[in-house]
Amino acid sequence: MFTGLVEGLGEVTAIHHLGNDLRLDIKPLFVFDKPIIGESVAINGVCLTVEKAENSLLGFYASHETLLCSNIKLLKTKSLVNMERALALGARLGGHLVSGHVDTLGIVSSLKNSGNSKIITIQYNSEFAKYIIPKGSIALDGISLTVNACGIDYLTVNVIPETWKVTSIVTWNIGQQINIETDMIGKYILRSQFIEENQTKKSKIDENFLRENGFFI
Questions:
Q1: H-type helices in the chain, by residue range?
Q2: Alpha-carbon distance 158 to 169, whole Å?
Q3: In terms of Cα–Cα distance, which of 87, 80, 49, 78 is closest to 66?
Q4: Are 4 and 98 in contact (CB under 8 A)?
Q5: Phi and psi (nearest 5°) for 108?
C-alpha cells in the first residue's frame, strides 16, 4: 500500500528484456535507506518487488501483464521514474490510499501555466469515468493529485511548484502515456453496489409464472 507521495526520482540505468517480461535496474537519486530484498516499491505508481540491491542500484522484475497495462514498457535507459516505498503502519497518510495496481493508461493532452502552477489535462478511456469525480483523488504515475474537473474521457489536475520540482511531471510532454490508478475506495463502493443490486433482483419464477406454466391447477 502506498500514499502517492513520491519520495524521490530514480534513473533507469539498464533494461533487460526476457521474452515478454523485463528486468529494470534503477538508481535512486535520493537517500534510499537500507533497501530490503522482497520489499514493494512503487515505480511510476506500479507496485514492483526489489529483486536485488547492490552498488546503489535496485533491480526490479516486470511481468508481461504489468507491461500490458502500464507505461513501464516505454521506459528507456536514463528515464526518470517516481519512487515511493510501501506505507509503514502508523505512518502519516499524507496523500490517499494507492495500491500500486494501474487501472488504465492516460495521455497528456494539455500543459498550461496557471500562476506558478501547471494545469494538466489527461485523456483516458471513458470506461473508467465512473471512478473519477471532481475534487476526488487520482494517482498519475504514482503521484497523488486532486481532480480539478473531469468529463467522460478527460480530467484536469493542478500541479503545484513543489510537485513539479520533485517528480517526473517535469519531463511530461503532450502525447505522453501516463499510468492512472483511480480511487480505491470509490471502486469498492461501486463494486459493492453492483453486487447488492444483482443479489436483490427478484426472481422471475414466482407464483404467477408457475401457474401460467401449468405447475398449479
A1: 64-68, 161-166, 184-199, 207-212
A2: 11
A3: 49
A4: yes
A5: -65, 120
